Amino acid sequence: MNNSMQLQFKSVSTNEGFARVAVAAFVSQIDPTMDEITEIKTVVSEAVTNAIIHGYEEDPNQTVYIECEINDNQLSIVIEDHGVGIDNIDLAKEPLYTSKPELERSGMGFTIMENFMNKVDIHSIKGKGTTVRMVKDFQKSKSYCN
Amino acid sequence: MQLATQFIALENVLVVRLEGELDHHSAAHLKMEWQEQMQKNNSKHVVLNLENLQFMDSSGLGVVLGRYKEVQQIGGEMVVCSISNAVKRLFDLSGLFKIVRLEENEAFALLTLGVAS
Predict the structure, then answer these.
(1) For the CA atoms of B59, B64, B70, B75, what is the dihedral angle to 10 degrees?
(2) Closest CA to A40 of A138, A123, A122
(3) What's the average model confidence in pLDDT over B30-37?
(4) A18: closest chain B residue by CA
(5) pLDDT class for A143, splitting at 50, 70, 90?
(6) Are the beta carbons of B57 and A35 separated by less than 8 Å?
(7) Is the pLDDT of residue A146 over 50?
(8) CA nearest A105 in B: which residue?
(9) CB contact under 8 A, A14 and B25
């Protein structure tokens, strides 16, 4: 199966729930397991939250972009902001590291993305924005009768 | 879906029951309510019941970690109970079980803190 979709929405926190439900609904056509749905919802929530809090520093008048593509049993998700960019990507990826400790962040966002997806690439340019590209392979066939 | 909260004070324990979705959007309000309830009831320990929590991400971990630090400062303990496999995975990944005790259900968690429910 080949399919794709694009979403864009305002950088407000209510849209975190919207984004993860929308992507989960799109992914449902490849018949994922409940665990796989939870993983997808969680990584979308992490990346969109990062875009809103870090990329746009909670400016509600910006736009977050999502692109999803299904190729056979592989899903790729690209989540993009045109915000401030990440200073040091290696540091940002470290478990428990957060650039905003005053906001009570756990610093686990990228660690969760890397654990729940097969591949995570982060591209960021200071002052231009950040793009997170994630890939996940789904089980090919699920047999319910043996 | 939004987050619904229920707070019950039993002796020096605050029971916090969460229902719905805990993300960055719901985290700030939860933090405020939780802190208010701790103060109002003069609670020392927390039992966090996640039986009806449908979704949580790293923003939720941040709130739990923040309240843990406050409870620890007053010599209290935080116990979490009735968690789903998905939430358990997040706790495992972040090492939260090293500081927050996990119990099977609310009644048992309360019992371990000396409260018979």
Answers:
(1) -160
(2) A138
(3) 98
(4) B1
(5) low
(6) no
(7) no
(8) B62
(9) yes
Per DSSP (E only), the strands in chain B are 3-10, 13-22, 45-56, 78-81, 101-103
- What share of chain A has pLDDT > 70, as a percent? 95
The per-residue DSSP string of A25-43 comes to: HHHGGG---HHHHHHHHHH
B50: left (phi over 0), alpha (psi -120 to 50) or beta: alpha
Predicted structure pTM score: 0.94
pLDDT of residue A100: 87
* Chain A from 56 to 95: CB within 8 A of any B CB: 95
Average pLDDT over residues A42-71: 97
Q: Can you list the domains of chain B with their CATH numbers?
A: 3-112 (3.30.750.24)
Assess whether A39 carries a catalytic annotation.
Answer: no
Question: Measured between CB atoms, which of A45, A103, A106 is closest to B23?
Answer: A45
Nearest to A49 among B55, B59, B93 (CB): B59
- Which residues on neighbouring strands pair with residue B15, listed in sequence order? B8, B47
* Smallest CA–CA distance from B31 into chain A, residue: A104
What counts of helices (H) and strands (E) characterise chain B?
Answer: 4, 5
- Known catalytic residue: A133? no
Say which of B21, B58, B63 has its CB closest to residue A46.
B58
